[in-house]
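Sequence only, no structure available. Ideas?
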Amino acid sequence: MNMQAMVLSIIGKDKSGLVEQLAQAVKNAEGNWLESSFCQLGGQFAGFVEIMLPRENHNALIQHCHSLSNLQITLVPASEKKANTHKIIKLLVTGNDRLGIVNDIASALKGFDINIESLSTVCESAPNWGSPMFSASIKISAEEGFNIDRIIETLEEIADDLVVDIKS
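Reply:
I predicted one. Tokens follow.
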């Protein structure tokens, strides 16, 4: 059997039991569920699943997923994983929400030799502050010896109220 690592991306109207149905589709295609990330945004379900499955079962998996619930499905080969010699750091960024804050953070991080591994953001009402609070959880990878203090300083320079903490 010729196995291949694939990434399945899914987006569609959220409904109860969708993850179980996806897991069943992967199992039926003789796939092994390796890693996944899901979320619900604006009533839509979105996710990514890395799976290992026989090449000859790709179409069967796609067809089964399409039959689930008008999902938009993409199945692409996974990139070859390289030995990770980078250090992983998790940052929590909080401050008053404003137009362009994610762009400003991404632009600030672009100046460093790092990779954004994951980014999760949320805006929540903060009655004590009088405006919505922005919060971002950012996982970055960088080569050993990078200056985390300089990254934090650069992010905090974006706005007076922006606070950056290292999460463990």
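Strands lie at 3-13, 32-41, 44-54, 72-77, 86-96, 114-124, 133-143, 163-167.
Hope that gets you unstuck.
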